[in-house]
Amino acid sequence: MAGTRSSARQAANAAASSSPASSQSQSAANKDSAAGAKRKGGSTTSPQAKRGRKGAKKEQATLEDTLPNQATEDESKDTEMKDENEAPPNQAPEDVSEDTEMKNETEAPSAESHKPTSARDESNGDLKPEDSTTANGEGSKQESLNTASGGPEQTAEEDAEQNGTGEAKASTGGDAVEESSKREESTPSSILEKGIIYFFFRGRVGINEPSDVNDIARSYIILRPLPHGAKLGDGPIGDAGHNRMLALPKKVLPVSPKDRFMTFVEKTNVTMEEIKNSLSSSDYMTKTAGSRHTPAAAPIGEGVYAITSTGRETHLAYILTIPSEVSEVQDGVGLKQRGSFVTSAKNPETAAPAGASLPKGADYPKEILDEFRGRGWMPLEPKLLDYENTQFIIIGHNEGALEKATVPQPDDENQGKEEPKEEMEKLQHEDDLRVEHLKGDDTVFEDLGLSSKEYPKLQTTW
């Protein structure tokens, strides 16, 4: 459902004014809201992002490295057939056999009795180990920041006492993410994970600017999880090294319950440097056509997301911040201003038709495999996205997608928690102000550490 910037901001301000935020945060938000109903796209000043962790670990193989050598959609042309046969090792076919993909869904992922768990549920209310550093402001990331700045080591609690707000900066390596104990307490447990989401697509070989969906080689979703109690201030999102890159062989997003598209975790727990390398352009030689050019991926959207549980189902819900209004490109790939998908993860030990899955499934530990209980599917949980080659299906909604994904749960209502939709709208409003104060649509490049000169601008028209 498309929406304007002013209506989204007014709804978010109403939700934010009822939340137990500090008086200082309220006054800042009111001041920014009064400044205008729609951000300007050409801010000339921007805070410089702090450097995150260097990608010291071995670079992970891409999805393209592992997929079988299959034919692409346009192999009907003789030249393209020759080029595909001579493609470099890291060049993958554009589809994972779309015709057989639906066969893999004959064992439909039904809404079975399986209660998803959030990061906090797995350790008696505490964040998972990889998130605890961000939430507490302790550990190696915080130590490195203190060393770089020359300041003394300081915990999040000590920082909160000094600033008198009950809130502390998260050690993400950037200025935008702040940790709030009040936000943590008010966030409903049905939000299993929240964060920043980016949508990209890449044109076919030799096509720098796709003119329609048929010119798209592959689409991507990048997820940047945030701590459960996180709120957003000004500046770029720092690199905590916990980024995920998802590949969509179908190239478009599902728009109705009949659309059931397989999605793959191509990279996980990686730095933005590794994501940057995967999105960049490349050139290679073929015997028949000579030099060929694979274009850089182009951004088509940025916003906030939440993986939510409605009891027996999980959803991937999102609200766009960039662009402020969807246009023909977003409509063409099925991207809405607000949307969600029902999600179910595939058991890697169950059989699948040839070409409908990756050659090697996710390497889950026994405790996760046991949660499938021999079934072919289970509701997607955030922890499954921390494994490369996780395969999950996304199913569209006819209408009211976000509302279906954010239905309040009785336990949260009894504890006086905010509704999931209110928390998402509050986070999106904070992201809207952040984008307005940073670089407008170019915030995507600032966040991801990309050069806007090396990548296509955010595309809204064909």
Characterise this structure.
The protein is an alpha+beta fold and 462 residues long. The chain contains 16 helices and 14 strands. It has an 8-stranded antiparallel barrel with strand order 3-4-6-7-14-12-11-10. Helix 1 packs antiparallel against helix 2 (23-34) and helix 1 (5-18) packs across helix 15. The longest helix has 18 residues, at 420-437. The protein is globular and about 65 Å long. It starts with a helix and ends in a 14-residue tail after the last helix. Mean pLDDT is 74; it is low at 1-9, 11-38, 40-59, 63-106 and 119-173.
Topology:
Elements (H helix, E strand, L loop, with lengths): L4 H14 L4 H12 L28 H4 L11 H8 L12 H4 L27 H8 L3 H10 L6 H8 L3 E3 L7 E4 H6 L4 E13 L12 E11 L3 E3 L10 E6 L11 E11 L1 H8 L2 E5 L3 E5 L3 E12 L4 E9 L5 H6 L4 E9 L19 H7 L4 E3 L11 E5 L5 H5 L4 H5 L5 H18 L5 H6 L14
Antiparallel strand pairs: 1-2, 2-5, 3-4, 3-10, 4-6, 6-7, 7-14, 8-9, 10-11, 11-12, 12-13, 12-14
Keywords:
462 residues, alpha+beta, eight-stranded antiparallel β-barrel, three-stranded antiparallel beta sheet, 14 strands, globular, disordered N terminus
How far apart are the first and last residues' alpha carbons, in Å?
Answer: 21 Å
Residues in helix, %: 25-40%
- Oligomeric state of the chains? single chain
Query: Beta-strand level of the residues, as a percent range?
Result: 15-25%
User: Number of DSSP helices?
Assistant: 16
The average pLDDT value, as a whole number, equals 74
Summarize the biggest pleated sheet.
8 strands, antiparallel, barrel
